[in-house]
Amino acid sequence: MEKSHLIHNRKIVLIFASILFLVIIGLSIFFAIDNSHKTATVNILVAPTFATVEIDHHKFSTDTTIKYYPGNYTAKISADGFESQEITLELSPDQATDLYLYLTPNSDRSNFYQQNTREGTRMQTIVDYLATKSATEYTDEHPITNILPIIVVESDPETFAWTEFRIDYGKFKSCKSDFCLKITDSTGGNRDRAINLIREKGFNPNDYEIIYSYVPPEPLP
Prior knowledge:
It is a single chain. The protein is of the alpha+beta class. The chain has 3 domains: about 35 residues; about 100 residues, Immunoglobulin-like (Sandwich), CATH 2.60.40; about 70 residues, no CATH class. It is about 35% helix and about 30% strand. The strands form 3 sheets. A 4-stranded antiparallel beta sheet has the order 3-2-5-6, with no helix packed on it. It has a 4-stranded mixed beta sheet with strand order 8-9-10-11, with no helix packed on it. Strands 4-1-7 form a 3-stranded mixed beta sheet, covered by helices on one side.
């Protein structure tokens, strides 16, 4: 009787173990398939360190790299005593997206980053990263910025005639667009020469809004 009972218990244990094994295998396959669809990468760095980072109703660490499903999502970042932020993430397959930002403290915690060395260091890292990224994106969008400004100052030792002009880029008061080139001519008559110089550098002047300004030097007192 006892032997029969023992055999029965062993059968139950074996059946349970087999079922558990199959469940584990099934879950492993499920998660493997599920993770195979997470082909987008998100690099997260947020200040303060105790902030809540939520993407698609899932919470993540403030300093991590995750794999996620491609698509458009809203990331919500919040922390007690700070102004919350919501940003749109466009996650593309096999590409990395950076979620780097810092929350602004409320007025009663305005010196938070100055008073907390660790938090202040992280915030500065984020600020530096965003500044570098912005500069890189600006240069990528406007490659001509790599050769500007151009400053030309020439003089003729025989006639003592001199030429001076410069070419800058940016958003100037008289620009109609967000990006234009500005020729500032100090001696006059150098507009065409400046435009030809742009062409010689490998850029098409017709691709840009160009403003010309003749600004003679102020006479000596």
